[in-house]
Amino acid sequence: MRIFRFIAFRLGIALVTLFGVSIIVFMAVHFVPGSYEDVILGPFGTPETRAIVRAKYGLDRPAVEQYLHWLAATARGDFGTSLTTGQPVAAEIIRRAPATIQLAVMATLLAIAVGVPMGIASGVTSTSQFGRTAGRLVGALGASVPVFVLGTIFVFMFSIWSLGLTVGGYVPLFEDPLTNMRAMTLPVVTLSVFGMALIQRTTRDSVLSVTSETHVTAAVARGERPPDIIRSHVLRNASIPIVTVTTVYFAYLLGGAIIVEQMFSVPGVAVYVVQSVRNRDYLAVQAGVLLAATVFVTINILADIVYALIDPRIGGKRSQS
Amino acid sequence: MHLAKRFLITFSFLTLSGMMLISGAGSSLAEGGTITWAKPDEAQSLDPHTDFNGNTWKFFFPVYDTLVTTGETLDIQPGIAESWEQTSPTTYVFRLRENAAFSNGRPVVADDVVGSLNRVLDPATGSWWAGTLGSVSEIVAEGDHEVRIELEAPHTQLLAALAHVSTAIIPMEEYNAGTFDPTKELMGSGPFMVTEHLQDQSWTYRANPHYWGEGLPVADELKILIILDESARIAALRDGRADVGTFVNPDLPVLLQGDENITVVTQETASYYNLDVHALDEESPFYDIRVRQAMNLALDREEISRVALGGMGAVDYPLPRTFSSSKACADVPSYSGTRESRLEMARALMAEAGAEGVEIEMLTTSDLASLVLIAQVIKQQLSDIDMSVNIRQLGYAEWIDAVWVRGDFDLNVTWLTGYGDPAIVLGSWNPDKTGWNAHYFVSVPELNDKIAEAQSTPDGAERDSLFAEICTMIDDGANMLALVNKNNVIAYRNDLVEVKIHPAEGYEDELRYIEEFARIAP
Amino acid sequence: MSLIVRGPFASILDFARRDRLSGIGAVLLASLVLLGLIGPVLPLGDAEEIGVGPRLAAPAADWLLGTDELGRSALPRIVEGLRATFLLASMAVILTGILGTLVGLTAAYAGGIVDVAIMRLVDVLFAFPPLLLAILIAAVLEPGGTSAIIAISLITLPLFVRVVRAVALSIVERSYVIAAEVSGAGFLRVIVFHLLPNVLGAVIVQLTYALSIGMLVESELSFLGLGVQPPDASLGSLLRLGSVYLTAAPWLVFPAGLLLAAAILSVNLLGDGLRDLMDPLRGRSLR
């Protein structure tokens, strides 16, 4: 029963958070200087034509009314119509979601696949001065290179030696997997380097702290083989922080790989929201931001529930953060 | 690279004698196929009658026809009208093509033309182009294939105004029946029709089977890829995902060095970068005409062209250099003498105005990369007359709001499109008529009269001498300054497609002949 | 807590001796900061003068790192960019540090409804996509240094508040805090004199991470054109312009990119060392 109360509590907090996000994003897009009619009429707008456009799209209504109207519609799952294209915002987001999800999933998987082994390796070798230094340096270095620097270098390298990969040229995965992978490899690698470093650092820390615990020392004393110790003692106990950092990283990627989507022409949700800010396509921005926040909050709840199931003590303690 | 270089050199010597670049001559051409064009911006709205943004028009050009159009050197050419006649100074009669049809198969009739033009003129439509057409008293359909336009006063630029996609002929029968909504879809009588639009990603067009042009379009399909990032657009050209690309970067030839199969061409336009000056704000130093004049004299347009644009885009005049009559503008004070002599005059004017330690705000938008480069060069030039400039680079909507809604600026770097008649762009210097610059522009009655006179005077020596007077007055007022030509930079795969690129463009339609582009057989 | 107890100088020396990598990080950071600080007085040339040489010229005696798209010498611009990057990121992080510490301590000590309200606000900030937040702030306040500082600060704030609050919570119940309360110490007094000294270690460690994230975010903002405005430069804005010319003028990209990576690396190495010093076994979380 306790777990259900915990879940209900977390859901309640999530709703409050999303409510706050909805207010902030609504206020931000509506009070920012420059509005939809400015974009559409440009220098040639007159007070009269501007009023016509505002009335046509209901932008002349009081802000509170517009907000409540939007909130009610969103609660029903209706994201409204794009001012720019006259098409439903939801359809546009659904069309773009696969690219963003693919980018986030692949980057996260790659980050785990590289980061965890590297973390373990630098954790168990850190008894030596060299191992400790190398492990720390690699982790710190990976977390120090901005994505666009990496991206720029990749664009440069692959404009000289193509190696079968392309800069841009995205097609949906299930339409043409080969072309898709050729276009997605570079953005995925670019995006995952930071994640690799993050996971490597977390894994290394966890391994270090676990290896100093008594049951591991005991296992070593018993003469168990190192691979067995790592598998049965170290990894099991180090997994919680690794899962935490990975979920946060994944949620972060789903929320906005803006620069990478832009550099590599990946038609994802992040670019959509940025372009919509430029065009003052209000509903598209609001829906995009709220969706990103929802994904972020949901993934965090899922992670919390998993911990609560693993360790019943967590239910009470973690509830506040 | 030497291929690209050769064309560049050729182009710098091109005059408006109708020379045209045609590549791939000699190779065998493939039937049909897809032509792919990579460009940086997505459409902002879909209604050709109301959208003012040149980047958006490019999606309309393949779909919509206009009554008339312009040719290789901005000369008026037949469009939907195969011929026309000016029967009196205020009457034009257009004879429509009998074989023109919308992409749904319905023939274009005079009622479509009348309805479309009336929609443009209807204040409720809110078309920004309506004023350019002059005072139209009536538009009448004479049978199915003849349209008569009656004006209240002679208006020389009428044909050039009708050549703009803002007067696109839309299917009025379907529009009136409610089965066609120009704000949500595109349907015209042009060479292509839209089959798919993936926002921020691509537009796909199929050949319009009912198009009137014989054997056109050559390709079956036209694909426009929207690629924001310049390096990614270059990559698309390199790996053959795009056949043609359009760019703003003047250094494209340098960036494409070593790519033998990519040709870069620059196309002169009737458009230029210009500087708006806020002359109506008492707080602004530019409220004093002498400070404006000094600023104008202190500019070094040649350096702007050379440094900010890498030499692409020559010094330009209020009356765009593409028009031969622009010579009349070349001798005004801010274009004559050495920079030193102009600086001397400028400093004298500043002293006379008692302007010391002047600080000004210069606005521009990050939407077009070349603008901020120009702004930085201007900043340095104005420091020569002790004017310190603070550059504020805004996002697009914020910029529109700051400049045209609130008028919160001293200088604004932007650009003007020149179209097909010199008087269209000169009309911008009459704030009473255009309205959009009335909040920062001093209305000069004599200048307004001269512009009106030029607009109603037929082309010829009399009009040219009016232009010369107008240019002198414009330079004297220093309220809106032409800087340098805004060239189009086009790159294409010379091994994949045969293209036809005209030397001068007035309406932002840099790939005007895209219906003639053909794939080269592998 | 050894840093505070034993006097700073001796402990820094000791720290560098025990932990070479962090020592290297500290030396690297100090020299980069120094370079940024004295940059304007070094005889490198004018960072803003247009047309010093031809456009996009390769490195030569008069322009050691080549010239940019306006014929400006790249070297002084890179040094200026380094200074701007450090300045913006550290101002933002100082703001985060002050605000985050106060808010986090208040939440922990006040508890109840105040705590709930603060933590929900922090949740909202945390859930907001960071770069979009920055884009909206730049649109509202106009792109530039100020809006970049505010954006970086708001992005680094949520985690900072959480960490400070979590550390403070473990202290609030301790006897000396309760004793202070009993003796009639006011709210502010308890926070400043009893809680603050005990969370300082965690704050310092967290500040270094915030600084490294702040520099990453600053460069990303500049890359999107939202940071310092031209003709001023930051490493991010230089990289943004330079990346276009990568094939033709690599000198516009690689020095600035290396410098940016080195700056962030130095902060990260130092941060790791400080953290090990404060609490050798505690794991760390993202951002």
Structure notes:
The complex is a heterotrimer of chains A (321), B (522) and C (287). Chain A has 321 residues and is mainly α. Chain A has helices at residues 2-31, 36-41, 47-56, 63-75, 89-124, 129-142, 147-160, 177-211, 214-222, 226-255, 258-263, 269-279, 282-310, 314-317. Chain A is globular, with a radius of gyration of 24 Å. Chain A starts with a helix and ends with a helix. Chain B has 522 residues and is α+β, with helices and mostly antiparallel strands. Chain B has 16 helices and 23 strands. Chain B has helices spanning 2-12, 54-60, 110-121, 158-162, 172-177, 230-238, 252-255, 289-298, 301-308, 339-353, 369-382, 396-405, 422-426, 431-434, 445-456, 461-477; strands spanning 21-22, 34-39, 68-70, 76-78, 81-88, 91-96, 136-141, 146-151, 192-198, 202-207, 221-226, 244-247, 262-269, 272-277, 358-365, 387-394, 411-416, 480-485, 488-493, 497-498, 500-501, 504-505, 518-519. In chain B, α9 (301-308) crosses α11 (369-382). The longest helix of chain B has 17 residues, at 461-477. Residues 1-18 of chain B have low confidence and may be disordered. Residues 1-5 and 280-287 of chain C have low confidence and may be disordered. At the A-C interface, α1, α6, α7, α8 and α10 of A face α3, α5, α6, α7 and α9 of C.
Write the layout of secondary structure elements.
The complex is a heterotrimer of chains A (321), B (522) and C (287).
Chain A: H1 2-31, H2 36-41, H3 47-56, H4 63-75, H5 89-124, H6 129-142, H7 147-160, H8 177-211, H9 214-222, H10 226-255, H11 258-263, H12 269-279, H13 282-310, H14 314-317
Chain B: H1 2-12, E1 21-22, E2 34-39, H2 54-60, E3 68-70, E4 76-78, E5 81-88, E6 91-96, H3 110-121, E7 136-141, E8 146-151, H4 158-162, H5 172-177, E9 192-198, E10 202-207, E11 221-226, H6 230-238, E12 244-247, H7 252-255, E13 262-269, E14 272-277, H8 289-298, H9 301-308, H10 339-353, E15 358-365, H11 369-382, E16 387-394, H12 396-405, E17 411-416, H13 422-426, H14 431-434, H15 445-456, H16 461-477, E18 480-485, E19 488-493, E20 497-498, E21 500-501, E22 504-505, E23 518-519
Parallel strand pairs in B: 2-11, 2-12, 13-22, 15-16, 15-17
Antiparallel strand pairs in B: 1-21, 3-4, 5-6, 6-8, 7-8, 9-10, 10-11, 12-19, 13-19, 14-17, 14-18, 20-23
Chain C: H1 2-5, H2 8-18, H3 20-38, H4 74-110, H5 112-127, H6 130-141, H7 145-172, H8 175-182, H9 187-223, H10 235-244, H11 254-278
Helix pairs in contact in C: 2-3, 3-4, 3-11, 4-5, 4-7, 4-9, 4-10, 4-11, 5-7, 6-7, 7-9, 9-10, 9-11, 10-11
